[in-house]
Amino acid sequence: MIVTTLLFNFSLGFVGAFFMSRYAFQFGLVDQPNTRSSHDTPTPKGGGVGILLCVLLMGLISSVPILVWMPTIGLSLVSFFDDKLDLTPRFRLILQFSSAFAVLLAVEWASLGWLFCVPLFLFFAVYIVGTANFYNFMDGINGIAGIIGLVTFALVALFADLTHAPDWQVMLPAGVAAACLGFLPLNIPKAKVFMGDVGSVLLGFAYASMVCLLTHDLASFVCLITFLFMFYADALTTLFIRWRDGEKLSEAHRRHLYQVLCNELGISHWKVSCAYGVIQAFIGGLMLLAYQQGLVWQFVILIICSLLFLITTFVVRMEAFRKAKGAET
Question: Is pLDDT of 115 > 80?
Answer without folding.
Answer: no
